[in-house]
Design goal:
- This protein has 24 helices and twelve strands.
- The protein is mainly α and 526 residues long.
- It folds into three domains: 278 residues, HUPs (Rossmann fold); 56 residues; 82 residues, Arc Repressor Mutant, subunit A (Orthogonal Bundle), CATH 1.10.10.350.
- The strands form five sheets. It has a three-stranded parallel sheet. Strands 5-6-7 form a three-stranded antiparallel sheet, with no helix packed on it.
- Strand 6 and strand 7 form a beta hairpin.
- Helix 20 packs antiparallel against helix 21.
- The longest helix is centred in the first third of the chain and has 20 residues.
């Protein structure tokens, strides 16, 4: 085994563990279709959200890792289930009255409430594709309605019909007594109303490829199972898609564990081999509840990109995929800073350690080199303390702190300033709450003020940090964390903040002295 192969075999990064698992699938023979097919699914009944992006990003990371250990060609399909009947009206869309009138119809056959596309499904699909394209994902987009209507699924649908009872036997044990009596894997689409029907099938004709049901008036209605006249129930539909497309890899959320098992059983009945998979944990909103595309809770894709870079979002997706995580606005600053910290340390890592670095997987093995003299959290505090959203003024502070820094020399930092201004205005400024010092804190601030006045104007952050420690130690703080918390609350109006020595150096020693003098004179720093 070569050193390179040994490093990958020992790598703990989850994309490589998944890639190695997938490689074993083809130990005996390569895929007959000529490539390894990755798939990710999208429910087109609601607007795309970050969880949707996460599936594509994570699957892409596995695909990239696979490419480094195998010469087999690969393809990624992003599949939209826009044949699904609309069960309820999402809370975050216009024209809800019109949508209520179309409940039960496939989302690809419902007018677009936004008025920009031929259908609601087409609108949501376009939103998803535009976002994925903006990220530069390499993928092929398929929609359920197109695959059903074009006949691409016809052969496998006829297989389902031929194995009708065997498929039912997989699903029936999971249903209640009443539902068992009417369950059919096929959901006919009513020729009159266009709605997806959950009705009892009274007859089926394998030779003709049709099923028969009775409508509300008791009349027998015969429909083909092919050509988009029917769609399949969810678990049978998933299995059918795996079989028809010959999917090799698909990950899914923890809430679909049972669906994965049942769909795998159905695909085996159809003569296929279930894809390799990865179960990830779900994202939670600020209240710890599961994010739902229909409810619109949690963060949207556009919201994250107003406050942070796409790469930071990819980092959030990479980290701990099998642990439930809160996905709300307050995770952004920490994630952004962590992304740039990983970039800064990447060059100094060993070859083996690089394979386990998040930025290796975010950037397909080739992370960029970025000069970032100021982090995101520091920028947030600078915007607030300087009380300005003027980028030229903010660059003046930064250039004093890091000579030579500027928009041309540091374009990544220039982009980060825009994010910081937006985030500060929307989330930090409304929560600012300054207070005056108590007697112990005032004494420590007076001591600090004297020591800061004695420093040279160009004192660096470490020198200032030492002075801060000395001021805390010289007074009655049982824990220095209490001292720094006091500094944050008094000077920055928040319970936590950046490394204060570096922040004072960035804000400027003279301005910081003026700020402390103001506080000691009985005025808040606001």
């Amino acid at each position: 085994m070569s050193q390179s192969t040994q490093r990958i075999a020992n790598c703990k990064a989850w994309p490589y563990r998944e890639a190695l698992k997938l490689l074993k699938r083809f130990e005996k023979a390569p895929p007959e279709k000529g490539f390894v097919l990755f798939e990710t699914g999208f429910g087109a009944s609601g607007l795309p959200h970050i969880g949707t992006f996460g599936e594509v990003a994570r699957t892409t990371m596995v695909r990239q890792a696979f490419k480094t250990i195998s010469d087999l060609p690969t393809k990624l399909i992003c599949f939209a289930d826009d044949m699904d009947g609309l069960r309820k009206v999402p809370a975050n869309i216009p024209n809800p009255e019109m949508m209520h009138q179309n409940l039960g119809r496939p989302v690809s056959r419902i007018p677009d409430p936004f008025g920009t596309h031929e259908s609601f499904g087409a609108h949501n699909n376009a939103r998803l594709r535009a976002f994925l394209d903006a990220f530069g994902f390499e993928y092929e987009f398929l929609s359920s309605s197109e695959c059903y209507a074009s006949g691409r699924f016809d052969q496998t649908l006829l297989q389902i019909l031929a194995n009708y009872e065997a498929v039912r036997e997989v699903i029936l044990p999971t249903l209640g007594p009443e539902r068992r009596q009417t369950y059919s894997p096929f959901l006919p689409i009513c020729p009159k109303t266009g709605r997806v029907l959950q009705v009892r099938i009274v007859e089926r004709d394998e030779a003709a490829g049709t099923i028969t049901y009775e409508d509300d008036g008791g009349e027998a209605v015969v429909v083909p199972v092919t050509g988009g006249h029917c769609k399949l129930q969810w678990k049978a539909d998933w299995a059918m898609r795996w079989r028809a497309l010959d999917v090799d890899y698909e990950m899914s959320g923890k809430d679909l564990i049972e669906s994965v098992k049942l769909s795998a059983e159905i695909e085996k009945i159809l003569g296929g081999r279930p894809p390799e998979g990865f179960i990830f944990e779900l994202f939670l909103d600020e209240n710890g509840e599961k994010i739902s595309k229909s409810r619109g809770n949690g963060l949207t894709i556009d919201e994250w990109l107003r406050y942070a870079s796409p790469e930071s979002l990819s980092l959030f997706m990479y980290q701990n995929p099998q642990r439930a995580k809160r996905l709300f606005f307050d995770v952004i600053p920490k994630t952004v800073d962590e992304y740039y910290q990983h970039l800064a340390t990447f060059e100094g890592l060993s070859e083996a350690a690089r394979l386990e670095s998040p930025v290796y997987h975010i950037h397909g093995g080739k992370p960029p080199t970025v000069d970032l003299p100021v982090g995101f959290s520091m920028l947030l505090n600078l915007v607030g303390t300087a009380n300005t959203d003027d980028k030229e003024v903010l660059w003046g502070f930064i250039a004093s702190y890091a000579p030579g820094a500027g928009p041309q020399a540091n374009p990544e930092l220039d982009r980060l300033i825009d994010f910081a201004i937006n985030y500060f205005k929307d989330f930090v400024a409304p929560t600012k709450s300054y207070r005056l010092p108590d007697p112990t804190e005032a004494a420590a601030l007076t001591f600090l003020l004297e020591r800061l006045r004695a420093l040279p104007p160009d004192a660096d952050g470490e020198t200032i940090q030492t002075v801060l420690y000395d001021a805390g130690k010289a007074h009655d703080f049982a824990n220095l964390r209490d001292w720094f918390r006091a500094l944050y609350e008094i000077l920055l109006g928040q319970p936590q903040g950046p490394r204060m020595g570096n922040f004072i150096a960035l804000y400027g020693l003279e301005r910081s002295i003026d700020l402390i003098e103001k506080v000691l004179a009985g005025q808040t720093a606001a």
